[in-house]
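hi! just following up on the protien thing from before. the input was this:
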Amino acid sequence: MTENPDHKVEWHVSDKLIAYPDAVAFMEKRARAIAAGEAGEMIWLLEHPPLYSAGTSASPEDLVTPERFDVFQSGRGGQYTYHGPGQRVAYVMLDLRKRGRDVSAFVRSLEQWIIDTLAEFDITAERRCGRVGVWVARSGGREEKIAAIGIRLKKWVSFHGISINVDPDLTHFDGIIPCGITEHGVASLRSLGRATKMAELDSKLRQNFETIFGPTRSV
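and the predicted 3d structure came back as:
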């Protein structure tokens, strides 16, 4: 990114499952406060109860079993995704007015944050042209998505963010066509043989965030 803000980004980790509507309400309020200069930037790490969320490009036919979990219209970019226990969600409330006002570069930086973090666990994760998110290649050439990205901007302040599959129930993804893609699968750190505690991933996420985006402080 171009330059870091003068203050440190607040880094918050929630230990309990957070209801999706509560998280969205908090992010929207915080984004407004950041835009008004009344609050600082923030990263919020959490897990949700099982749910499906629809981005602004979601197609109704990609919701295969709508009765399985609660379904939420999210307002973020992208299509359908799943959130649930064992998946680390990182909500990214950053002020792009201080970071170059370049949305494409911002998304690439989020991707790189994920890629660098997964490399800490000896996982080679990659971008794919025309496909949002971060991917891993299995033997035989099969590609699987291990992390998703969905961002919304208001007044150049971001919210929503990224999710990384640590050890979720991967069968929960069967109720949707993730991101509208049928020919590829879904991976997790555990499915790749990298049994990892959430706290260990969080530590690596923070280190790599600071390398790309700048210093943080715990709240």
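Residues 48 and 84 are 5 Å apart (CA to CA).
The chain has a mean pLDDT of 91.
cheers
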